[in-house]
Amino acid sequence: MNEAPVPTITCGARVRAQPDAHDRAGRLAAALAGAGVERGDRVAVMARNDIEFLEISLAIAGCGGNPVPINTRWRPAEVAHVLGDCGARLVIAHTEFVPVVEAAREQISSDVPLLEVAMPEELLAEAGLDRNLGRPTGRHPLLEEWIDSRIEPLGYIDGAIADSMGLIYTSGTTGAPKGVFRERMTPHQLLSIAGGTAQRMGLAPGGQMLVAGPLYHTSPNAIAVLALRMGTDITIMPRWNSEKFLQHIDRKRIQQAKVVPTMLSRLLSLPADVRARYDVSSLTHFIHSAAPCPPAVKRAAIDWFGDALWEFYGNTETGTVTWISASEWLEHPGSVGRPVDGSAVLVADEHGNTLPAGETGRVYVRGADYWPRFTYLNRGAPESPVEGMIWVGDLGHLDENGWLYLSGRSSEIIIRGGVNIYPTEIENAIMALDGVEDVAVLGLPDSGDLGEAVTAYVLARPGAVLDPGGIRAALRDRIADYKVPAAVHLVEELPRDDSGKVYKRRLREHAAGTTSG
After folding, report:
1. Residue 464 Cα to chain centre, angstroms
2. pLDDT per residue as tens digits for the range 462-509
3. DSSP-derived 3-state class of residue 306
4. What does the alpha-carbon distance between residue 82 and residue 84 come to, in Å, rounded to a whole number?
5. Helix 187-201 to helix 218-230 angle, to the nearest 10 degrees?
């Protein structure tokens, strides 16, 4: 009788058997406990996608600490905010980010210890980084030294996993990240979340999953850690590359992967002959979320990936709220689904008055039956005119059958001549034009008396030639004239975070130096 293959974690040219990863995580947990990390203590992690990221996450949870992943694109002031806000007990960082963490500590006059993770040559090569980053700074203890200092893994601590899931931060695309402080979960809640996530995300022991997004983001992190606990074979991409993504699916017969709409658009930018080289039929759960997906991109993705394509809508505070399959989306194009697992959606005005079907308003949500309650760390509980539900800034409407459609965020509404304009509608119209890979629309101050001018920043697909005047002319047949951008700027990139959300405030900050098309 053939034995089942030992599950592994692969990242670039590195492969580690999962039993070895669990052993290393257990020994690191023992070292963390020996260094004074207690149950509920926050341990910040600033690292690139690699095998060690998952081991570190398991180790912190193993001793009851609370992992706090930090966006690797953040600058010292942003890192300092989170370190100070959560009261980090320890920071674990790749060599590349040690100077950023050191500068952040200085800004808040903190002496929080720093544990350095040496960057392997394989990671540097795969991520296209300077090989000099492979030399540790010598200013801090090394992760491998802590692991090697312990012969035996830390034993099982009852309730440690519940202690490890108490705090998580929002992405901070519209302001400073907020710490979502969850009530301590019961065993029933933990099992319900794990079981529901595994089922809907398509995870299974012995399956094949691909981590395409950054592990410092909530969804990729939670899915990957759960997959590791289940014995799912894991392949980690150190950084996004459209063709390599397809190569992994083809060669490893990947069944599960999660992306954001920007990644879908970049996959569609690959030449047809490149896409045809790779067999993606192994995919059963190809999931996207985190940002609205333009209908033109979604339809093309369904044509390619078929019933494997799924979408969900949720947020850090309440978890996943709605789901929609490919076939459901074709029947309800533009929708992000209906509530699942006891979650709920209500569209209402600012006073909590329910709006009729089809009318745009605030999207109030409640998490699944098993989802824990929360407050904002150092800020208290959220206020809401709708009992038991919260609003995190999203706008949208429900149709007569309860399908949710998003219009964007309240902070992004453009007000021109007293009329509300929703950027998402204009972005979707531009994305439907040939040759457009990405777009962001926002309102900028108008020199006249109409308030804000609709402004579009457009990224062309490789090889495509776009003309700002041509874009504006094409839009006049698709949307009302007052929604047609007054200016279209062709750009080489858009400031999106790795969850697909545009930092529109950065576009506003740099608008004065932009050349109009």
Report:
1. 28
2. 999 999 999 999 999 899 888 999 999 999 988 887 667 777 777 877
3. helix
4. 5
5. 100
